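Need residues for this backbone.
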């Protein structure tokens, strides 16, 4: 399970980088830039959830 979470973190970081390249800072709230911005926020939320999941698993292992 530990390796799966690392893999998900790496894929998330790659998705953030790819979507950052699609951003057009002169017109960020229209077209593909908006989709990329929403995708970046969604990936960041997912990474936060997995970080919380990893911390809860490590706490669970320490209490056993």
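Answer:
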């Amino acid at each position: 399970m530990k390796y799966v979470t690392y893999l998900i973190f790496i894929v998330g970081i790659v998705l953030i980088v790819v979507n950052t390249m699609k951003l057009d800072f002169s017109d960020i709230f229209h077209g593909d830039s908006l989709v990329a911005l929403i995708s970046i926020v969604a990936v960041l939320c997912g990474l936060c959830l997995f970080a919380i999941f990893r911390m809860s698993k490590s706490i669970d292992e320490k209490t056993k």
